[in-house]
Specification:
Helix content: 25-40%
Structural class: alpha+beta
Strand content: 15-25%
Distance between the termini: 32 Å
Number of strands: 7
């Protein structure tokens, strides 16, 4: 089925979830990462690749010359892996991320959070809401952020580059308040279970 983006807008129906829900399980929110944010999330790698590229290119050209001069083919092959690594760091990882984006899907049901990802093989990760201890939002702007979810002190899921993350965090806070022990505390104290770093998202 087609789904609603985290912004609430219809569209991007080419994306379909590739996992089954349990009997009676209902989706409360679903979305995908913002494509540009997801593609360029590791942009610092490109700067490192740009530094390596001229060095590895010079080494590769020199290796070819030395291989001819000394009749030693291995001198031409030796710098090749380093050159390929520099190419990947410069631009290759951007193409990989953009292709992977086509298969990334996030969902919140009444029971769990689900992350679908993977370029060649599909990877499905989930976290039961009853196991959710707290979450952090790393803001990239007023309406964009990455959500990190924890079970105890262990980070279990990361939902990268979510548009309008407040829509999701409000649902998470609501779910966490519902599981608050009936000890007479006021409803607002349930928010103490949640750690957020929303910055301008507040």
């Amino acid at each position: 089925p087609c789904f609603r983006q985290s912004s609430g807008k219809k569209g991007r129906c080419e994306m379909r979830r590739e996992f089954d829900l349990a009997v009676g399980e209902e989706v409360r929110w679903e979305g995908r990462p913002a494509p540009r944010c997801y593609t360029f999330r590791n942009w610092r790698h490109s700067f490192f690749g740009l530094v390596l590229m001229p060095v590895c290119s010079f080494w590769q050209v020199s290796g070819l010359d030395f291989a001819k001069e000394y009749d030693a083919l291995w001198l031409a092959w030796l710098p090749l892996p380093f050159l390929l690594m520099a190419i990947y760091l410069t631009i290759g990882h951007l193409f990989q991320a953009r292709l992977e984006w086509n298969h990334v899907y996030y969902a919140l049901t009444d029971r769990r959070l689900i992350v679908q990802s993977g370029l060649l093989a599909r990877r499905i990760e989930s976290l039961e809401l009853k196991d959710l201890t707290y979450f952090n939002v790393l803001p990239y702007g007023e309406q964009l952020g990455t959500l990190q979810l924890y079970k105890g002190q262990e980070r279990r899921l990361t939902l990268r580059c979510i548009e309008h993350p407040r829509l999701l965090t409000d649902l998470l806070q609501e779910a966490m308040k519902k599981r608050q022990p009936p000890n007479g505390d006021s409803p607002g104290q349930a928010l103490d279970w949640v750690t957020t770093d929303q910055g301008s998202l507040q």
